[in-house]
Amino acid sequence: MTEPVKVAVVYYSSTGNTHTLAEAVAEGAEKAGAEVRLRRVAELAPPEAIAGNPAWQAHHDASRDIAVASPADLVWADAVVLGTPTRFGNVASQLKQFLDTLGGQWSQGQLADKVYSGFVSTSTPHGGRESTLLALYNTVHHFGGILVTPGYTDPIQFATGTPYGPSHHDAQGQNPLTEETKESARYTGKRVTQVAAQLKTGRAVTHD
């Protein structure tokens, strides 16, 4: 019997929106039968910058007990789902810095042939959600990963219109995450798990 799919949900979140999406992705993966590791990347911002934003400070304090991601988490996983807020239409430096530490694993082929996907949060409706995910996926191509986005493969995706990956705009903190967006994230976790399971089963048959 094939072992359960292993999914690593690795994210950076400043004020908590990306964290909430990460939890929903993890929930969807677990309900689909995956073994999940939820991991945050290390914070790089100086304490005074964090303290200058009460929401950032509150989330920073509340997330201290969440395990920090390591390269071993990606090597362990059959599927990796990466989450980031947008920073000028691009990946947040905290997540990018973590990805930039993976050269050793990349050069050994340890990040290839896994399923990858992503999710994102930003302050405004057109603040770079799609460009951020597309930029993030450049790294997946370099890894030799298998990109599995939600696309329009479920009714929830027609409601949210986010084929590149679950995304949220919080209107400078005025717009809470909707249940539709969280359901899109759960669906992404489910879809990633299902596709990774198919690949894992196929590989097991091939090697028998």
From TrEMBL:
PROSITE patterns assigned to the protein according to its UniProt record, in alphabetical order: FLAVODOXIN, FLAVODOXIN_LIKE
Q: Name one GO molecular function term.
A: FMN binding
Q: What is this protein called?
A: NAD(P)H:quinone oxidoreductase type IV
Similarity comment: family membership = Belongs to the WrbA family.
Q: Which NCBIfam families match?
A: flav_wrbA (TIGR01755), PRK03767.1 (NF002999)
Lineage runs: Bacteria, Bacillati, Actinomycetota, Actinomycetes, Pseudonocardiales
Tell me which domain of life the UniProt entry assigns to the organism this sequence originates from: Bacteria
InterPro entries, A to Z: Flavodoxin/NO_synth, Flavodoxin_CS, Flavoprotein-like_sf, Flavoprotein_WrbA-like, FMN_Rdtase-like_dom
Among the entry's GO cellular component annotations, what is one? membrane
Region feature (Disordered) = 161-188
